[in-house]
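=== Per-residue structure ===
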Amino acid sequence: MEVKKDILWRVYLAFIGVVLLSIVVIGRAFYIQQVQGKYWRSMSDSLHQRIEEIDAERGTIFSENGEMLSTSIPQFDVYIDFAAEGLREKSGKVFRENIDSLSYCLSKLFDDKTETEYKLILNKGFKEKKRYFLFKKNVSYRDYQQLKKFPLVKLGRNKSGFIIEDKSIRLNPYKILAFRTIGLARDSFKVGLEMTYDSLLKGRIGKRLVRSIAGGVTVPVDDYQIEPESGKDIVTTLDVFMQEVTENALMKMMVKNEAENGCAIVMETKTGKIKAIANLGRKNDGTYFEDFNYAINSSEPGSTFKIVTLLSLLEDKKANLNSIVNLQGGVWNINGSTVYESEKHGRNEVTVKQAFELSSNVGMAKLAWNAYASAPSKFINHLQALNIDKPTGIDIMGERRPIIHKPGSKYWSSTTLPWMSFGYNIAITPLRTLAIYNAIANNGIMVKPYLLNAVQDEGKIIKEFKPTITVQKICSNETLAQLKECLEGVCTEGTAKALFKNSPYKVAGKTGTALVANGNKGYADKIYQSSFAGYFPADNPQYTIVVIIKNKPNALIYYGASVAGPVFKEIADRLYTTNVKNVVSETASTNYIDSIRYSFVGDKNDIQKITNSLQIKYNDKSSLDDDWVNATLINKNIDASKKNIETKRMPSLRGFGLKDALSVCENMGLKVTIKGKGKVANQSISEGQFFAKGQIINIELN
């Protein structure tokens, strides 16, 4: 009996303990749920929700004439939340009613799957209750606009489960055009204007609350979002037509001479605006691309630097243009080293002006040595007065600093001064060379080269940039006049004489040919850098241009007048006919007749209809199967002859009306941009040049 009581006592005690423990657990659960519930629910949310940044729409980069050089276009990623309450209510009635028509519409829009395949994908997702299922990536804005109107999708996010996330991609409409200057807009790597003005272009980042769900994906939480603020737009100084002309001219020579790299820059003389800047480098497959901004990279300038030596000599009265210098047949020994001419001439006693026109290394070296050997700092002072020891300060990141050795430094030797006088033992950027020549063209006023005209916000200008004078006067008027005379002499009597023979406008400039090192291999590979710097028209300068091309090892053609000079001339010729001719006084004669008003090109049938209706005599010298004719109005009679239109090379469009020019170009697969009204006066792809389908051609009407 005692044993039984002892056992029962223990059982009752254990039972009471279990009951008490249960009461405590239930009470605690009630307390956590009801009293602390809000706290723990917020804690849960904090573990499964987070703030996510939303990129702002990046600003657009425009050319000076308003054409987009780099812009952001919207793209959309489409997700589906198959567990959305609205989609699953009434056992998914709305889903079943719309799946057939939705599958049909999706198949027609994207044309990548059949209606049946889309239906299987949607049914599977619905059956498995997939959350935030990635349905389609990179949907264009046009397709997105149609998608919003589709069955089920048009019911909205809660009813359909469709979640649309927008994003932006960066687009360069002109592709290679000024690509390195305009720049790239990658997350980890930016260059050019995209990097320099990133803080303006990128805008203000937005924020939104997202919730983590199964599979590690996140879903935006409604009604909790700070909208991003779009970036500002920037308007550059670049001109699309000039840029195309510059790049085409540079590309033509690079391909012809199989050059390694090169650049060409066009500056508006009076303002310092960079109108075009082309940089091309050779890839392993032999093609060319804007791989590096050579315009802001320092190198030995060669003979284009002789203008600085001449300026120093004239300004210090160490010589005048009629002073005699003995070129010694083109070889001069100095302090154990020998100065050679880059081009053999066999001349001995010549004037300083002739030595410059001949681009004589010996002449410049002897003159500099005789004038400054005892006080080389005086020569260096002239370089500093021209800001040659500083970067130009152009508004683009990455400009390299110049390299100028000074007396007393460990790099200064007994041969530094004479070699520096003709562009060796010194390194400056093409932009600095451009600034020097532009200052001479601009009556001695040196202006800073710049690329940005204005900053805009929704079309309104919020900041405008003006020309900046960096040196008020580079030399006296007397010296300036002599420098101009010498630069013009190079193009009429010197190394560029043949290049500009019979030119309708005057050019002032200087050729340059520099032997450059092949990395650590030294100079044995005979790599020459060809250059030409100058301005035009010489009597009323409008543009200053510098062209620098690094040739391949042992190139057969490498002189500045033969490689860089033709690029300068092609650019100058095109700009003269389109931008300069009307502002130059010597061509403003009242006797001048614009021949394009009386000669035109067009569809043969159209021209015949017009002449018949106007009762103008029409003399047709073309054959019956000719589609296009050249028509010339002479004494109220029109003579028509066959107009040849090639399909593999670019034909001349000069004289075409816009409708006919568009017809020709689009039939050849070209994309056309148009400027002006009337008949075609200029085209960015030159006559006879090869082209690729999809390439952009800029047509200017007169």
